[in-house]
Amino acid sequence: MSERQTLFFIDNIRIALIALVIGHHAGQAYGPTGGFWYVENPERASILNAFFTVNRSFFMSLFFMVSGYFLPASYDRKGIRHFITDRLRRLGEPLLFFFFVVFPVMMYTYYLNFRHYGHLPFLKYYLQIYFGRGIRPLDWSGHWPDAQFGHLWFVEHLLVFAVCYAILRLIHSRLARIDSKGERPPRNLEILAFTLALAAVTFGSHLVPDRQVECLSWVHSSCLCRCSS
Predict the structure, then answer these.
(1) pLDDT of res. 190
(2) Nearest of 108, 206, 205 to residue 150 by alpha carbon
(3) What is the DSSP string of the chain?
(4) What are the pLDDT digits (tens) for 164-178?
(5) Cis peptide before 145 (omega within 30 of 0)
(6) Is a pLDDT exceeding 70 seen at residue 225?
(7) Which of 59, 85, 112, 218 shows a CA-CA span of 20 to 30 A to 65?
(8) Own/partner long-range contacts of 13-19 (Cβ < 8 Å, ≥24 apart)
(9) Are residues 78 and 30 in the same domain?
(10) Same domain, 98 and 185
(11) What is the pLDDT of residue 40?
C-alpha cells in the first residue's frame, strides 16, 4: 500500500489555527470582550479587543472549511458504511466520553463556585442538575439542564454534518441510477443558482446568533468540492 501524500501546508494551517484557539481562550481572562471565563484578571488589556474581533471572524470558520474540503474524498475512498463507522469512532466516542465523564466534573465545579444554591453531592448534581432529573430552581440562569458538549460543540457539529453528508450522497447516487442520462457536470446556470443560494443563506445567518456562520464554511467547502469533482 502506497503512503499517502502529506499536505504540509494544511498541517501548518491547522497548527496556526490551534495556536489562535489557545491564544483566544487564554486571553479571555485579560480582554475586555472575550466573553465569560473561569478566571478573570482585574486588569484588562484593551488591545485584546481587536484581537478577539478579528480572530473570531475567521478562525473557527477556517477550521470548518478545511474539514469540509476533504470530506468528499474520504467518502469516495471509504464508502458510506466505513465512512460513518469511522466518523462515529473518531468523533462520536470522545464526544460521549466528555459528555458523560469530563464535562459533568467541569460543570459541577462551576456549580459550586459560581452558583448560589449551596453545596450538593456530585452524584445528586449529576442526576438532578446536569441531566435535569430534579426540579429547576426558579431563579436558574443559563440553559437547563447543565448537560452540554461545551467546547466540543465543534466535534458535535462535524459529526452531525458528516452523517447528513453521507445521507445526501446516498440519495444522490440512487437518484443517479434512476436518471437514464446518468451523471453530468453542473451547467453554468445551476452553478450560479447554487452560488446565489449559498450567498443568501450566509447573509441570513448573520441575522441569527450562535455559530451558524462558522458551520456554513463547512457546508460551503464540502459542497463546492463535490461540485468541482
Answers:
(1) 80
(2) 108
(3) -PPPPP-HHHHHHHHHHHHHHHHHHHHTTT-SSS---SS--SS--THHHHHHHHHHTTHHHHHHHHHHHHHHHHHHHHHHHHHHHHHIIIIIHHHHHIIIIIHHHHHHHHHHHH--S----HHHIIIIIIS--SPPPTT--SSSSS---GGGHHHHHHHHHHHHHHHHHHHHHHHHHH-TT---PPPHHHHHHHHHHHHHHHHHHTTS-SSHHHHHHHHHHHHHHHHH-
(4) 999 988 887 876 665
(5) yes
(6) no
(7) 85
(8) 13/62, 13/66, 14/63, 14/66, 17/59, 17/62, 17/63
(9) no
(10) yes
(11) 75
pTM: 0.72
Looking at the fold, whether 47 and 102 belong to one and the same domain comes out as no
Q: Yes or no: say if 92 and 85 are a contact pair by the CB < 8 Å rule.
A: no
Question: How many structural domains is the chain composed of?
Answer: 2
Residue 40 belongs to domain spanning: 1-57
In this structure, the answer to whether residues 18 and 113 fall within a common structural domain is no
Q: Tell me: do 82 and 178 sit in the same domain.
A: yes
Domain boundary among 57, 72, 93: 57
pLDDT in tens, 65-121: 888 888 888 999 999 999 999 999 999 999 999 999 999 999 999 899 888 888 899
